[in-house]
Amino acid sequence: MAVFTPLSDAQVAEFLSRFDVGSLVSLEGVPSGTENSTFFVTTDRRQLVLTLFEQGEHEELPFFVDLLDYLDEHRLPVPGPVHDRDGIALHSLAGKPALLFPRLPGRHPLSPNLEQCRVLGDTLGHFHVVSRHFPGHRPNPRDLNWLTAMHHKVLVYLSPEDQALMKDEVEIYQGVLGDAPELPQGALHGDLFRDNTLFEGDRLGGIIDFYNGCTGDLLFDLAIVINDWATEPDGRLNRERHDAILGTYLARRPMTPAEREAWPTMLRMTALRYWLSRLLVVYVDPPAHDLTPHDPEQFRTILRARLEHGALPLPETG
């Protein structure tokens, strides 16, 4: 159960009294999640999600509130935070920072179909067009600088072959991306896996969990999506899902020549980003709570497949 700070009905009812959302009917802890305590809250007027922030840099929470407010104002399917009667969204509950969100409809797509992929690509393209003008700033905490600094911490736990793979890859990224022209920048989701989306059939009900949100290379966000949404269990890319996502994305936001050149390297770099972050959780910095870490091997497999088979051709757009 991923509720690390239990709450009583009385605590939540008092908390809700600051908002114009109705009176508490029921409170249910949400078992999924790895970092924060999450609850489904039903009032006599609506369904909500209450999140208590257990870890992380709490001073960065205003960035996430501002980003979600901004995207919500631009009609992106995100859970814009609920503000209280004084216009304040971020509060404290049980000694933890707390935010209240509308509960968005849908379920995570375990095996996304092509229409869901097209919808996701179109929405991400729209997101990135809008996010280029977002005024907030939070450096990407998992960019090339992080890879360069952190990969040394896990080398002792790897086979000689994997040590060489990781060191060689970081050196290549520094050569290709370190001296490349600046790629288009904007606000990123930073972790747009399938389980951070909600679909009702082929309709995208929402994009959730923005707590890896940051500003940086838009291409980084897109590569994370392709490596999760369009990858087979053996690490190879699925051409149909790849083309469905990228076709609608590129119709919204065409890549620049520099992005097209950097694309194969960015796919590899984001695969290594998750391989490394998962290795760090397993060997160096285990989670504060008794949860099973994600398997690092998945992204080692993806990285090796990108090296062996390269990137697929980008789809043509009108």
Automatic annotation (TrEMBL):
<dbReference type="InterPro" id="IPR011009">
    <property type="entry name" value="Kinase-like_dom_sf"/>
</dbReference>
<keyword id="KW-0791">Threonine biosynthesis</keyword>
<dbReference type="InterPro" id="IPR002575">
    <property type="entry name" value="Aminoglycoside_PTrfase"/>
</dbReference>
<protein>
    <recommendedName>
        <fullName>Homoserine kinase</fullName>
        <ecNumber>2.7.1.39</ecNumber>
    </recommendedName>
</protein>
<keyword id="KW-0067">ATP-binding</keyword>
<dbReference type="GO" id="GO:0004413">
    <property type="term" value="F:homoserine kinase activity"/>
</dbReference>
<keyword id="KW-0028">Amino-acid biosynthesis</keyword>
<keyword id="KW-0808">Transferase</keyword>
<comment type="similarity">
    <text>Belongs to the pseudomonas-type ThrB family.</text>
</comment>
<feature type="domain" description="Aminoglycoside phosphotransferase">
    <location>
        <begin position="27"/>
        <end position="253"/>
    </location>
</feature>
<dbReference type="Pfam" id="PF01636">
    <property type="entry name" value="APH"/>
</dbReference>
<dbReference type="InterPro" id="IPR005280">
    <property type="entry name" value="Homoserine_kinase_II"/>
</dbReference>
<comment type="pathway">
    <text>Amino-acid biosynthesis; L-threonine biosynthesis; L-threonine from L-aspartate: step 4/5.</text>
</comment>
<keyword id="KW-0418">Kinase</keyword>
<dbReference type="InterPro" id="IPR050249">
    <property type="entry name" value="Pseudomonas-type_ThrB"/>
</dbReference>
<keyword id="KW-0547">Nucleotide-binding</keyword>
